[in-house]
Amino acid sequence: MKISTLSSTVGLLAGLAKLVAADCSLSNDGNYYCATTNAIIYSNVGVSATYNDVTLMDETTCACSSQQVSFSGSLAPLDEELSVHFRGPVNLKQFAVYYPANGASLKKRDNVAEEECAEIVTKRKHRHKRDIAVEYVEVTATMYVDADGQTVTTGTGEQQPTTTQLVNDINVAEQTPTTTQQNTVATEQTPIQQTTPTTTTLSNNNYPPATTTAQQQETTTANTIATTATAPSSSNTNGGSVAVGSWERTSYFTPGSTSNCTFMNNQGGTAGSGTWSACFGNSISYAASNGVDGAGSAIALDDVTLKSGQEFMIFSGATCNGNECGYYREGIPAYHGFGGNQKIFVFEFEMPSDTNGNGYNQDMPAIWLLNAKIPRTLQYGKSECSCWETGCGEMDLFEILSNGSNKLISHVHDAQGGGTQDYFQRPIGNTLKAAVIFNGNDKSIHIVEIDGDVGATLDQATVQSWLSKSGSAAALP
């Protein structure tokens, strides 16, 4: 939300007036929704700023140290390596990542009308259990409503859950790790040791995924591609050449088969991969084929539907060697994410209803992207132990905000922040196929519904047709 010399209350009332004029409505869940859309277009994505990059997770003192790093450029920091996250109820039917091949390049968009977004404050429930602001034209700070109903303005946009939100009076130090102990941390810890911040400049890491692991190659089907560590090759496994201006699929998943995708969750220390400690709880680990349990090696996800609150994530098939991935928690299976400011993600998924139980995030599925550094240190727990709170990057692609809703909202959370209250229809009883196009040439990110099959390559005409789809506009400051 743009913060001006006017009071926050005046700004809120003005925002509400805009919503009324725009025929948006307040739902019973406390969120505002506008219209159904088949495309969301983020423009002016990318900012020059800093975040705190974790440099040490000390198991002796239970403290995390960090240093300040700077970033800038088109789509920054979302041009850094990203991991892809899923929360149930969800059934993933297809996932693919494409990179330019043979000179392919996304063109700048022409004459795309950017709708003015209303300024409103809503209460949102999420995996971070946050109450935050949505719908921005310019964002220099974020307003949210705290647990006592008080309006609070911050400069970071959102807050991770505290220890007591994750663990209800549980002394983790007295427990041994189990598969039900996911995302737990100790309730009382030694204060974080503050170090004098230094500044490091990050270069844009256009890191295409690397060759699949041996475990993954065993499950690779004939129509998937194993790529090199430098760039997509000029031919595919079907024997045909990749046309000039086309996009090559570098990662691919269908149930039971995967190429250059590594499935993980937060079950470290329970089943042969990752680690657990009283200080930091469960780390990331390989995910079993059911997506819920841990595993000792990389395994393809089966055709499974995760229940409410259950989560898994996807990294590339390239392991982190040396200092390639920066600092990460000791003892984890560390993999590269998907980097670069020109890339395309394709999803096909179903989000069925889940009315059983009343657990955290009940019947609130979501698909989102995180800076891959976050899960490699600590996705849930102490805020000082990941770069998330200081704005290293999150993008919610498809998120249900309240129990049982059928409206999928998108939002960006970093030093900019922004989104739209237009929504995709939740796929219940059917699947939704969508492409997420990162276009560094004009600083835009497109989320669009698509039809038809996608193969080992995408021709430029297909990609440009996706880019030309009109929909809800979200201009970042």
TrEMBL record:
Domain Cell wall protein YJL171C/Tos1 N-terminal: 38-100
Top-level EC class as recorded in UniProt: hydrolase
All copies of domain Cell wall protein YJL171C/Tos1 C-terminal, residue ranges: 245-466
Positions with biased composition (Low complexity): 177-201, 208-218
GO molecular function term, any single one: glucan endo-1,3-beta-D-glucosidase activity
Residues of the signal peptide: 1-22
EC number(s) recorded for this UniProt protein: 3.2.1.39
One Gene Ontology cellular component: fungal-type cell wall
Keywords for this protein: Cell wall biogenesis/degradation, Glycosidase, Hydrolase, Signal
Catalytic activity as recorded in UniProt: Hydrolysis of (1->3)-beta-D-glucosidic linkages in (1->3)-beta-D-glucans
Xref: Pfam families: YJL171C_Tos1_C, YJL171C_Tos1_N
Keyword Signal found: yes
GO biological process: cell wall organization
Protein family according to the UniProt entry: Belongs to the PGA52 family.
Protein name: glucan endo-1,3-beta-D-glucosidase
